[in-house]
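Form 12-C: Joint structure prediction
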Amino acid sequence: MPMATAAGHRCYELWDPMPDEVREGARRFAAVQALNELVGVLQYVEWLDRAPSHTRRQMLMAKIQDEVGHGHVVARVAEDLGMPRERILLDYLEGRTKIHNIFHYSFATWEEVGPGLLLTNSAAITQFQSLAKGVYLPYARALRKVEREESFHYQHALDLTHEILTHGDAEQRRRVQEGFELWLPRILAYLGPPDTDTLHTNRMWQVGLKPDGNDEVRQAWLNKIIPVVRKLGLHVDPALVRQAPSGEWEFEMPDWAQVKKVIANGGPSSQRRLDWVRRALDRNAPYRRALQGVA
Amino acid sequence: MPHIPTDSDVYEVFAQSGHGTALNHVGSIVSPRPDAAWHLAKETYGRRDDLVKLWVVRRTDMIVSSADDRGLLAAKTRMPYRQPGFPTARRRDRSASPPAVAAPREGRDSGLTERRDDAREPGLTDLWLALADDLFVLGNRLGEHIVDYIDLEEALAVGSIGQEALAHAGTILVLCGFDQPAADARFFDRAQAQWQVSRVVERLTDWPSLVAGGLVIAAAVAVLAEQTAEAAQTAGAEQTAGAEPGAAWLPAITAIRDEQLVHLDHWRRWARALAAWPETRTEFARAYAEVTERAGDMFGARPQSPAQGVPAGAAPAGPALAVTLHERLAALVGENGGPGSRLPDGPGTRTWGVGGSALADSLSRGRTVRDEYAPGVFS
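Section 2 - Result
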C-alpha cells in the first residue's frame, strides 16, 4: 500500500471522484513541473554541441531527451486533468506561470556544468521522492519513472565533474569549485522558503499532495549531497553550509526578495529562455499543424 | 514490424490489484459482443483478488510488437550509455588504468592535412567512413531539435533518431578499426578540409530540410548496409582480416540497417504530412528538391589514405557498385509519397571540405571546450 494511504490520506486515480482541491492541485503540480522540465532543459541544450567527446555528447543528448520525456509524462498527467499541453508553454510566454529560479541562469563555463547538474539533479530527485508519496496516483507513478531516469543524470553529472577534477588543470579545477559555490545557494533557494512553522496550514499538505515541507526536503538533500561533494574533492565552505551538532544543516538564508525577482523573469537568462520558446513555437507552428492535420 | 492483430472477438484484460501499482496484463477472453466483454473478464479474472481497476481492450484495437521487433526494443543493449551504471563504470575503469599518454592532436594543428589517396578506387569502408561523417552531423542537428517544441512525442522520437545516428557513426568507426580516442580525434579535431560529407549536409538547416536530409541519409545507410551484408555473406570468413567488411561486420551492420529503416519510415511519414498540408507544401517541396539534388554523392566517397585504421588494400568499390547503390537509393527515396525527388540519374562524387557553414559552425562549437584542455582529458 502506498505511503500516502499510510499517512491517513485517500489516494485517487484519474476517473475517481475527488475533491476539486486535489484535482486542481494535481493539475497545477503536474503542469508546473512540465513547464520546468521543458524550459529547464534549455540550459543543458546550450552546451550540447560543445560537449567535448563522442560519448559525452551521447550521454548529454540522452539526458536532454530524458528531460523532455519527463516534461511529456507530467504534461500527459496534466492533460488528463484538463490542462491542454499547448497551454503549458503559452501560459509561460504570456506571464501566467513562472519557471523555477535555477532555470533563469546559464552555465558560463563547461566546468560549471558538472557541479550545476549534480546539485540540480540530486535536489530534483529528493523532491520527486517526496512528491511521489502524494495522493494523486498517476502523478506519483509518473514521478517514479522520472526518478529512475534521474539516477542516470546524477551519475552522469558525477562523471562529468570527476573527469575535470581528476584530469583538468588547476585553473579548470578551480572553476569547478566556483561552479559549486555559485550553484549551491541557488539550489537551496530552489527548494523553497522555510515552512516548518506554516506547513500544517498549507492546503496542499493538508490534502496530501505535498507530503513534506520545504525544510524537510532541503535537509534530506543536504544530508545526501554534501558527503558526495566532499568525496569528489570539493571544498564545502562552512560560510555556505555547515552541520550543527544536532546533525541539522545550517546555511546562509537566501535573499527571498531577490529570488522572487529572479523568478519574475528578472534573472540573467530569463529573456533568453522566453525568446527561445517563443521563436520555436512560432517557427514550428505550421509543422505542428501539418502533423495534426494530416494524421 | 508492429502489427494489428485480426481476431476481432478477442479482448485483452488488464487488472490493477493495489493502489499505486501499475496495471498488469492478466490474460484474454473471447466475447462475441463488446458490451459483454468487461463483465466476462470480471468473471474470468476478478474472482479472487480485490481489484482496483479492470480494463478490457479489443485486440484489434491494439498495435502490438512482433517477434522481430525485439532488437529495436532492447534499449539497454542498444543504448548502454544511458544506464546509471555506464558513467559509474567509466569512472572506475579510468581511475584503475594509468593516465592515458595522449597522442598529439592530429589534423588541424599537426600538418596532417593530406589523407587523400585518389589513385585507388574507393572501397566499401571508404563509403562507410563518409556516411559516418554525415550521420555524425545529422545526429547533432537532430539533438538540437529535441527542444524545438514541434510536438512532445515527436521530440522524443527525434532524440532517439539523433542518438542512433551518433551511435551508428561511432559503430562504423569501430568496425573500421578506430579506438575511442581515434574516433574522437576524427569527429572533433579534423579540419573541415579533411571532411568528406555529402553536400546534403550544407542544407540541413530548417525542419523541412532535416526531414528531407534525414530521409535521404537513412535510405543511403540502409542501402549500403544491405550491400555490405550481402558482400560479407558471400565473401566468407577468409577475406575479413583487416580489409573490407566481412562476417564480423554482420551483427552491427544488420542492427544499423534495421534502425535506419525505422528512421526512414519516420521521415517518410513526416514527408507525407509536410507535402500534403497546404501551409507547408511549397516550403517542403523546395527543401526536398534542394536536398535530393545534392544527394547524388551519397556513395561517391573518395578513398582515404590507409591511416587511422582504415584498412589498406581494400577491395575497390568501383563505379559499377556506385551505380547499383545509387539505383537502390533512388528506389527507396522515390517511395516517400512526397513531391518530386531531384535525385540525379547517376551517382556523383564527394568533395573534400564541403559542408558549408553548417559543418563549420558545428566543428568550431565542438572544439570550444576540447581545445582548452590537454589532449586525452576527455573520453
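Section 3 - Comments
Chain A is about 70% helix and 0% strand. The domain at 3-294 of chain A is CATH 1.20.1260.10 (Ferritin).
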